[in-house]
Amino acid sequence: MKITVKAFATFREVMDMQIELEFPEGTTVRTLLSELTGRYKGLGEMMFADPDTLRDFVNILKNGRNIHFLAGLDTPLDDGDMIALFPPAAGG
Predict the structure, then answer these.
(1) DSSP E strands, the chain
(2) What percent of the chain has pLDDT over 70?
(3) What is the pTM assigned to this prediction?
(4) What are the start-end ranges of the H helices in 2-78?
(5) Is residue 89 over pLDDT 80?
(6) Pick from 21, 30, 19: which is nearest to 75 by CA?
């Protein structure tokens, strides 16, 4: 199955703005992020506080829905999904 990943803001400093990847059926967001952090040096440190915990205010959307409100890192992926990665935002 094909998954499209879009990176926003500071995540673009360490990875491509958009990438399309292929995974077997049954893949989860956790597996996707493992692939991305292995591919892009520095991304893991930007995204994770520890191996199983996203940093505060990192938002990952599956087809526009925050995975926090789905199954978190264990959210299953489907063919054609669009995953958006948003780092913490600062400002005021």
Answers:
(1) 2-7, 18-22, 48-50, 53-54, 59-62, 65-66, 82-86
(2) 97
(3) 0.93
(4) 29-39, 43-47
(5) no
(6) 30
